[in-house]
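Researcher: Quick test of sequence recovery. C-alpha cells follow.
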C-alpha cells in the first residue's frame, strides 16, 4: 500500500468518482420554458395557502364549539328550566350552523390540497385550473349561504317586529 492510498482521518474529504454530484440535466427540446405569469400564479397560491389552512381550521373549531355550546344550552339545568323545549330547538339551530361551518372548512381544505398539487407539479395548468375551480366552488357556497342567511335575518327581524306590534 502506498502512502497516498492510506486513509488519513484528519484530512478533508476528496472528491472521487463515486462521490461526484450528478450534473443538472439540460432542458430537452420538448420541455416548455417557465412562463413568468404561471410562476406568479404559483407564488400567489403558495402565499395564500397558510391563510386557507388557518380559516379552514378555525371553521372546524367553530363547528365543534357550536355543537358543544348547543349541548350545554340544551342540558344545563338553569338554562333548560328557563327555556324549556326551546333548548332542543336551539340545539338543532346550533347543529345546522355547525354543519355549515364544517362544510366551509372542508371546501377550504380541498382548495388547499389543490394548491399543494399546483406547487408539487411546479405549476401545471391543469392543476391550476382545478385549484381555481375549487376556489370558485368555495365562494359560490359562501355566496349562497350568505343569501340564505340574509333572508333568514329579514324573516326574523320581520317576525320580531310583528310580534312587538301585536302586543
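Model:
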Amino acid at each position: 500500500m502506498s502512502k497516498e492510498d492510506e486513509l488519513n482521518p484528519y484530512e478533508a474529504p476528496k472528491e472521487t468518482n463515486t462521490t461526484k454530484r450528478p450534473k443538472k440535466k439540460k432542458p430537452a427540446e420538448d420541455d416548455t420554458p417557465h412562463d413568468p405569469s404561471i410562476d406568479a400564479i404559483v407564488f400567489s397560491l403558495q402565499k395564500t395557502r397558510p391563510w386557507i389552512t388557518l380559516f379552514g381550521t378555525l371553521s372546524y373549531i367553530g363547528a365543534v364549539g357550536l355543537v358543544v355550546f348547543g349541548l350545554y344550552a340544551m342540558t344545563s339545568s338553569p338554562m333548560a328550566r328557563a327555556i324549556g323545549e326551546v333548548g332542543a330547538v336551539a340545539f338543532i339551530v346550533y347543529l345546522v350552523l355547525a354543519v355549515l361551518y364544517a362544510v366551509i372548512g372542508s371546501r377550504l381544505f380541498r382548495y388547499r390540497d389543490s394548491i399543494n398539487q399546483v406547487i408539487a407539479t411546479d405549476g401545471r395548468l391543469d392543476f391550476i385550473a382545478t385549484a381555481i375551480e375549487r376556489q370558485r366552488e368555495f365562494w359560490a357556497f359562501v355566496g349562497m349561504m350568505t343569501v340564505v342567511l340574509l333572508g333568514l335575518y329579514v324573516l326574523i327581524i320581520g317576525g320580531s317586529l310583528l310580534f312587538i306590534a301585536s302586543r
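The mean pLDDT is 83.
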